Structure prediction request, 472 residues.
Amino acid sequence: MVIAFFLSRGAELLFSIALAHVQNNSLQALFPSSSLMSMLLLARRNLGLFQHHDAITGTAKDLVVNDYGNKLFESLAQMKDVTTKCAHLLLLQNITLYNPAVTDFFDVDEVRAKHDAIAEKTIIKISKHPRTVAIYNSLGQERYEIVTVHVSVAEVEVSEVNGRIIEAQVNPVWLGKEEIASGIFELAFTARVPAFGFSTFVISPISKSTGSTKRGKVVLYNNQRGRNGRESRYGFSVLVSGLPKVPFHIESSYITAEFSHKTGLLQSFMNNEDKKVMKLEVQFLFYGTTVEKSKDKSGAYIFLPDGEAKLIEYSKPLIRVIRGPLMSEVHVFLPSVQHIVRVFNSPGLDGVSLELSNVVDIRTEKNKELAMRLLTDVDNSGGQFYTDLNGLQIQRRKTLQKLPLQANYYPIPTTAYIEDSETRLTLHTAQPLGGTSRRLGLFRIGNSERRWPCCCLLMFVFNKIFRLRFIL
Prediction:
């Protein structure tokens, strides 16, 4: 539903701008406003339907859940159609050349095969001729951050429409834990996009490296193939190694994140400006369910664990580290979870943040709830923490020890934080989650999806705003 809201909002704004543009130029006959408005109306109605609690949580019979999903899938496809048609019109230098019958002028950057499938990146085919990428910002403020697209060749350079070459980075796309895909590459570059506007970039093939586009360097720890050493895979430098002997790190110009050499998970974090180090230890846990007379008491409508969460047990997980000038990331493969941490060298918000993302697959588990725990040295005495109310305001919460564990869990629609007199740790989510803070410096985030990528944004504040973006 969150995806549907933001996509429909962006399409609504773009449609309004495009409609005003054609009306100011007396070219209403060129613009298919009626058909596009019909799509928008259907999306509005479906979005209203999705407000039902069964649509949000999936607590319905399979037939109803699939119906909700298909309606969402249909609206997403139509909103992308509205967006591409309006973008086509607004980006033309001569608006009289607009032809609504042209359907392949733009393609979107992500596609879904069906409603319950994870979105996949569209591969931009690069041949002899340059390809153009238009980035749309539906927010009311300028955005300046790293964007990524998938391209078919690694030998490319990125430029603005005025011809100025900008720095870019090419990373491998992975088919499995250790196998790099051929013919698919991740291209990252910095984009500045005005409020409610577009920025256009040109991706051009090159015969040899010009220095503006650099490749990420890969390190594989605890590899499964049994051989170590440095090798080249599709032009990428890959160092294959065993268990790291000391903690390792990735860094940007603003932050340094340190990882445990035993678990591969984040353990601390440093602000490079004042060299202040903060504890930020990540752990993954499972809750069991209360069983009475061989009947599970937990279910779709209630969270009723059988006690405290238990740490997920594992040893020597495969760890992938990719380092580059624009972004660096760590991938850790745990049972049921692929955990990813990223830092960005960017002048925007993502440059002062650290992003964590998890792809969760617990389809083989039964009667278990997955949670991620963040252990910090924030002294939130009294068990106080804060969550938002549908993104409209912040509500103070207080852990009550006399209540059971599940009674101290609260919804986190978009944000939550804990703080003391000097530091604040803030979490921004990409989708609604649940969380609690039952002890000093502890944040626990729960996720009920069986197979889905989850996303959040964490921030530390050292007497000033500092953001740590986190994707769960």
Remarks:
- Residues 448-453, 459-472 have pLDDT under 50 and may be disordered.
- The first strand starts at residue 110 and ends at 111.
- The two ends are 17 Å apart (CA to CA).
- Residues 62-91 form the longest helix (30 residues).
